């Protein structure tokens, strides 16, 4: 072969390798992650969820614990995993021996079969709502877990990180632009310790960014700025920001830069949009949000301060009907899939912008096709004792009524509809036991689907002892229920009627009052 032909062949091979490497790297780079939460009264089997991840080409998953059943299901899947240490275990991780034991039981035991990449130490432990409960516990736990990983011989490829809420940094009121970002003064020293430690160990900073919350927390927030195709802009010394996600991310970068680590790798541990539980939490808004976010990520557009790839985990994968609603009723509706693993709206996780439904769970097993509803013949209840109100309050306290209320999917129900919805949710949570649909004779079981327009009255999944959160409570006789007399402010049903908004009734006023009219 002539030298010229050899050179040409070599050049072609080199070009092919270069193109292939770029192509493969671009595919690897956009390996989208999702959060898999398990705070549900009836969970899909872990193997079913892992198959959903595969069917939708999800390459990474972030967990909120290191549950054995979940880890076993992920074994051999090739899916990259971030396991987690919950906040209530941070104090225990202050002991190095406890940290070593945790790593042995949850990391090295699975390391040959599960592709573990990160350990999340806590979950948003510096939230202002926690009143400093975990401030002094987080860094020692982080230090000990990474040290234990190193000692176990896996610290070079498994890194400890701390998922933090975006409230750990801000810009001053007098200069509210990303480039002026800095960490909160009340946690500044702790953040400095954590950031320096992450940098020393070549571990990423993990942040949770929620444009939805910007809308939820401020009525003055420009609506379109929460999305990626709006007209609102913010100028930062000539740099134009068209959405709050970019502005928030760059505020963090400025905060890291102020500590001398402006080049630190940053992971977005959670970002998403809920579909119920608030006037802005609905499917059209969620679809709009994701139709802007996913192509942005696939195109590796980055932000003004950091163009290029950003590692992102969507929140969340599946709805969780047992999550705390302290932040808001929307907390149980973050999933891109419903509780039963069925997709809510078109979403193209490849980022190519195709309007197609995701691949849902297969072979899902449900309870019987039956519902619990307000007995149409039970209109003799006494308003003086507020019999209906007591029962509705009880049903909503021990089930999920977050789809009821102003601007929600079931917000247009009347009092009869509200009562039927509450009774049915309680009935389903308790596996359709006959005694769970009595309520002093106010309720009856029906085989007729009582769903209304946009309001779905769901049928729960068939329980599995290995995959359901044990929140099922003993079914008390109604006289015991009345004797318990839970405080009215504990009731979720205080806000379940749309009439509160329609008639200008304060949210604090109970649904009980409405039933007495």
From TrEMBL:
Keyword set includes Phosphoprotein: no
Stored InterPro entries: GH, Glyco_hydro_17, Glyco_hydro_17_plant, X8
UniProt EC number: 3.2.1.39
Keywords: Disulfide bond, Glycosidase, Hydrolase, Signal
Residue span, X8 domain: 370-457
Catalytic activity line of the entry: Hydrolysis of (1->3)-beta-D-glucosidic linkages in (1->3)-beta-D-glucans
Family annotation (SMART domains): X8
The keyword Hydrolase belongs to this UniProt entry's keyword annotation: yes
Family indicated by similarity: Belongs to the glycosyl hydrolase 17 family.
Protein name as catalogued: glucan endo-1,3-beta-D-glucosidase
Organism in which the protein naturally occurs: Camelina sativa (False flax)
Phylogenetic placement of the source organism: Eukaryota, Viridiplantae, Streptophyta, Embryophyta, Tracheophyta
